[in-house]
Amino acid sequence: MTEFVTSTEGQRATLTVSGDVDIATVDQLLGEARACLEGGADVCEIDLSGVTFMDSSGLGALVRIRNLAHDQSKQVLLTNIPARVSRLLEVTGLTDVFVSGSDR
Amino acid sequence: MSPGEPHRGRAGPRRPTTVAALLAIVCLLLTGVATWAAARVDENTENRLLDVQTKQAATVLSTAIMLIQEPLSTALTVQKLSGPDGNATSFVNLMSAYVGKDKLFESASLWFRKDGELTRLAEVGGTSSAPPSDSTLTYLRQAFQSKSYTVRRVTAGSRSSIGYAMADPATGFVVYADRSIPADRRAPVDRDSAFAQLHYAIYLGPKASLPALSTTDVAPSTLPLRGTTSRMTVPFGDTVLTLVTSPRTHLGASLSRRLPVLLLLGGLLLTAIASSAGYQLTRRRQAVEAMYGQQRELSERLQRALLPRSNPAIPNMDIAAEYVAGAHGVDIGGDWYSIIGLEGDRFGFVVGDVSGRGIDAVATMARARFTIRAYLVDGHSPAEVLARCSRQFDIREDGHLTTAVVGVGNWRTGEVTISNAGHPAPLVLGSSGAHFVETHPGWPLGIGATTYESTSITMAPGATLFCFTDGLVERRGEDIDTGMRRLATTARGAAATSTEALVLGTVDGLRTEDASDDVAVLAMRWCGER
User: Fold this and answer.
1) Torsion of CA B396, B402, B403, B407, to 10 degrees
2) Which residues of B393-432 are buried (b: 16+ CB within 10 A; e: fewer)?
3) Global pTM?
4) Residue B435 has pLDDT above 90, yes or no
5) Structure-model confidence comparison of residues B165 and B436, the more confident one
6) What is chain B's mean pLDDT, rounded?
7) Above 80 in pLDDT, residue B343?
8) Is the pLDDT assigned to residue A103 strictly greater than 70?
């Protein structure tokens, strides 16, 4: 089961994702993230602490969310990235795509 | 399975005619069983009802017999009271009520036995002048032997009658009476009598044979009664009457009789409906499956068209490649590989992966494949090829990320330059073991314009460069490094074999049966300058 929880605090919206992020759930992730970005917050934080699996479709979705945010002059932060996902970002050369956008 | 092979050997759906025939057989069987059962129930009911009616008829017959016996025994008792010498006036008076046309008897007579001689004392209805026949006298003598009255059949020409005799050995009186049987033995029954619903045949004696026939309501030539019959015997003096009956009409409820026919007709109707519906549904399903099959075939043909039919021969290089589709039939993936012969001593190679599945993933794959190929043929370095591509792919437009390893090698020197757009790094298999090439991956294609680093390696003679897509190493519930290590171990074990065996060995060894992601694998062995 993949779950999405959204909370907003000031200008920062947080989307907490848990479960598998793969071809079966990317559309849901994209939809949730779009709602997050359209909510008026400047920063969309995606908390990946509960992610158990991510494939290239999931990475693609994260990139699309990041590009969507860029188009709206907003920021996407990936937080609490599990080691597996972090390694995946590294393998796919995506680490700087997201980390450069964060304020960590 | 290679992409060149369409799905074969799949059990096809049943043909509509087969389905219709099967349904028809099943429905007909059910109809037959139901009809048979209903008919049996009806038959049992009929037999039971016939037995009941026959019993009633037999009771009526017994009553009729008592009516015959009653005047005889009364006459005997009256005569006994009159004494042996008493006149026969009371006998004549009594029996006159019973003798005559349409009455119980045709004639009646009173006899007296004295010293073994029989004398006729009186007669009613008969002709007194006629001397008694010997057979009659013998019969009357026999009557003294019987405890009840005796019955005999007398046939004189076409005239047939039944005679009754009752004797009192104590007083020596014998009463005799007879009644004629209609020549055709037919006695129609009253509508409201116990016989109203029956055909019947009454036989004198225990045998139901034509000579013994007493009365019937049908033409004697049509006897014995056929179909459902019931048989019963009724005591009749010193003999019995045998009553055989068959129903005139259906005795039970009319629904019970019609039920088998109704079931049969209903069953046949349902059979026709079911088999025609089965035929239509199966045909429709076949049509849908054919459409789905066409769609799948279309996808496969597209992918087949996009993968190299054969790899160009590169001098000094031993190359094998394989594409394995994912388990999801129509959801074809976007993995690919390319080998390209370039100018001079060089050759190019690509292994790539478009995220997602379906026709549009394949379309993106085709675009990436031919764009990269074109830039390589134009002589650009791998890093330049990827940088140029990064400006042409945008995930926001096509919805897909593309990762790829692009390399250019020299088949004389074994030198290889590799650039990586977010793809798992290739593996080098040599005499010293297996290690992944450090490729410094840049962004996958689709994120935006970017630049890429290059990595150069020189392969030892006999070393193999092994490129693959993540479908080979990715498994749910474990990190990618675990899969990479497993690949290194498996590939090292198969490194001594041919490149074909290496490719097949790693694919077979690492892919699970239900793996949904597709896989592309490319193995290139530099054999050294020959």
Assistant:
1) -120
2) bbbeebbbbbbbbbbbbbbeebbbbbbbbbbbbbbbbbee
3) 0.55
4) yes
5) B436
6) 83
7) yes
8) no
A6 bridge partner residues: A15
Superfamily of domain covering B295-526: PPM-type phosphatase domain (3.60.40.10)
Beta carbons of A84 and B479 less than 8 Å apart: yes
Residue ranges of domains in chain B: 295-526
Residue A56's closest chain B neighbor by CA? B355
**A-interface mutation test, from B402, B443, B469, most A Cβ less than 10 A away:** B443
Q: Using CA atoms, how far apart are residues B170 and B167, in angstroms rounded to an integer?
A: 9
Q: What is the structure's pLDDT at B327? A: 65
Question: CA-based Rg of chain A, rounded to a whole angstrom?
Answer: 12
Distance CA B98, CA B299 (A): 108
Alpha carbon of B297: minimum distance to chain A alpha carbons (Å)? 22
**What tokens were used for B137?**
């006298």
**Cα(B405)–Cα(B408) distance, integer angstroms:** 10
A94: chain B residues, CB-CB within 8 Å:
422, 443-444, 447
Helix, strand, coil in percent for chain B, rounding step 5? 40, 25, 35
Q: Give B92-145 pLDDT, tens digit per residue.
A: 778 888 887 777 788 888 888 777 777 777 778 765 555 667 777 777 877 787
> Which positions in chain A touch B423 (Cβ < 8 Å)?
92
Asked if B476's CB is within 8 angstroms of A20's CB, the reply is: yes
ipTM of predicted assembly, 2 dp = 0.78
Residue B158, pLDDT above cutoff 80: no
Any idea which residue has 């009956």 for tokens?
A: B245
pLDDT score for B189: 58
Q: Which of residues 42-81 of A touch B (CB under 8 A)?
A: 52-53, 55-57, 59-60, 63-64, 66-68, 71
